[in-house]
Design brief:
mainly alpha, globular
Amino acid sequence: MRQNHNLIQPKQKWLHGFWFILALSFFSLFILVPLFAVFSNALSKGWQLYFHSIAEPDAMASIKLTLLTASISIPLNLIFGFAASWAIAKFDFVGKKFLITLIDLPFSVSPVISGMIFVLLFGAQGYLGPWLMAHNIKIIFTPFAIIIATLFVTFPFVARELIPLMESLGNDQEEAALTLGASAWQTFFHVTLPNVKWALLYGVILLNARAMGEFGAVSVVSGHIRGHTNTMPLHVEILYNEYDFVGAFAVASLLALLALFTIVAKSLVEWKSNIKREVLA
C-alpha cells in the first residue's frame, strides 16, 4: 500500500503543478495583462492629463450618476433580496417555484433584452407610454430608467447568496429563540442576521460591482445624453469611439480599481465566512 502511495504522489504533484501553471497563465493572460493595458494607456500622457480626464464635467457627471445608481440599487435590492430569500427558505407556499424562477430571470436574459423590455413598457410607443405622456412623466432616456434597469439586472445577487444558506440552516434556531420568549425582531437581529451576515455582505459586494459596471441594459434605456444619462461604462464607450483613448482609459481605470477592490473584499468575506464555518464545525 505504501509503495503504491509513493508511486502516486509524484504524479499528483506533477498534476497539481500543471493545473497551477495553467490557472496562473489564464489569470495573467485575461486579468493581469488587460489591467496593465488599462492603467498604462490611462497614464500614457502623464498624471496631469489623467486627472484632467477624470475631472472633466461629463466624466464627473457619469461618475456621480454611477454612484447614485449604485446607492439606490444596493439598499432596495438588499431589502427585496432578503425578503424573497426569507420567504423561499423559511416557508412553503403556492407559487414558490415561480418566485425562484423570477429571481433567476435576470441571469437568464441578456442585459440588452432587459433594457428593451423597459423601452417596451415605458417608451413613447410602449404599453404605458401614452399614459405617461398624458401625465407629463418621462422615464426612458432619464436617470430614472437607468436606476430601474440596474435594479432589474442586479436583483438576484443578494437572494442567490442567501437562499442556499438559509435553507441549510433551517428554522430550529429561530423556533428555539421564539420558544424562549424572544420577540420576532429580537430573533431576527440576534439569531437570523448573525447567521447570514457574511453571505449577505458577499451578495452586496457582487451587487455593487454589477450595478457600477452594468452596460447593456443601461445603454438601451439611457439615450447616451452626455452629462445627463451616461454612466461610467457608457462614457468610456463614447470617449473611445471619439478616439479620446487617454480619457476612455482614465475613466476605465476607475472601474478597474473598483473590480480590484471587489476581488479583495470578496476574498476577505470568503475568508471570514470559512473561519466561522470551521468554528461552528
